Amino acid sequence: MAAILIGLAAGYGVGNLLGHGEASAESAIVAALTLAAGSSGRLRTALPVAAILGTIVVAYSTLGAVTTGYPVAAALAMAFVAFTTSVFTAARPVGLLIGLVASYAYFLVTGVGVIQERAIGGSLSEVGVLGLIGMVTALVLVSIRALVEQAIGNAPAAGRAAPSLIDPIRNSLRTFDDHAKNGVRRAIALGLTMYGFQVLASHNAFWVMLTVFVILAPNGRPSLRVAFIRVLGTLVGVVTVVALSQVLPENAALPLGVLALAVSLAASSRSTAVSAAFGAAAAAVLTALPSGDFAGYAGARLLDTIVGAVIAIATGWLLWPGTGANAAAVPADLTGRSSTTGVAPAGT
Fold first, then answer.
1. Taking the chain, what is the end-to-end CA distance rounded to the nearest angstrom?
2. How far apart are CA 53 and CA 55, in angstroms?
3. How many other C-beta atoms lie within 10 A of the C-beta of residue 80?
4. Do residues 273 and 233 make contact, with C-beta atoms less than 8 angstroms apart?
5. Contact predicate 163/92, CB 8 Å
6. Which residues span the domain enclosing 106?
7. For position 190, what pLDDT does the model report?
8. Which of 132, 182, 285, 315 is the most exposed place for a label (fewest CB within 10 A)?
9. Closest Cα partner for 9 from 25, 103, 135?
10. What average pLDDT does the segment 294-303 reach?
11. 158 to each of 16, 19, 43, 139, 142, how far by Cα in Å?
12. How many C-beta atoms surround the C-beta of residue 119 within 10 A?
């Protein structure tokens, strides 16, 4: 949580200082996730993990920006991101972290950017620059953190045998295992809902897509019970923040949204239900809350969530229905374990 908050502040601050204004929200998200990925461990293990995740987040965010406004291209891009981030999870622990966080970062930056354009850059070059600003800012902070901890003797020891990142992913594609099957499910469901979102560009389409995204997480197909909990978390998040918007002063909206975003990103590698709740709250703020019609807004989100759940369950459970629930457990300290363990070259 500390890494997320520091990364958000540093990424937004540097982007703002360089003249990007509110579009620095993208550099803030990239910096937060990259710093979290390198929030523990020695420099030789933490820095490569943070650099890999940061590079993927920048690349996926840029892909989203390039295809925004072009429904077919955006749908294909979303399908690509959904499939690849699912396959990444085969390479634990680092690949699992990358799959979970990169998928969430892509969705947040591009999804919110369609409705609230100032949240991302106005051109491809600015989007790329903002991503690089966020990543470089975070890598500097990771290096400082690691060197200070090593100097005072607080840095945890590196793992004895760092796993390969490439070999498990290659094997998943070759054997078409559960990770690849989950990627196909997510690619179809999220590709279709992204197409609808790009065409309609409305809050309703956004929340349908958010629900599908939350239910069909990168780490595998959950049980129906877990799917229900994730949907419930989404509803709790949006209803809570809309309710608070009726009693809190208007200038409290931005801090509320930033806090919800930080908690959501911090929880994305621990609990998808908690991450969904706070992610929904952050998205509600970023996409502009209504000024008065609480019941109408909450009711619309309830309907959108039901539609999204039906799409996710239909796609997720009709394809290979006999495989059952296969969601991989997420370790309590996935970011710390990943940045401490590090990665090894392919074939080692």
1. 33
2. 5
3. 17
4. yes
5. yes
6. 2-324
7. 94
8. 132
9. 25
10. 69
11. 36, 39, 10, 19, 16
12. 22
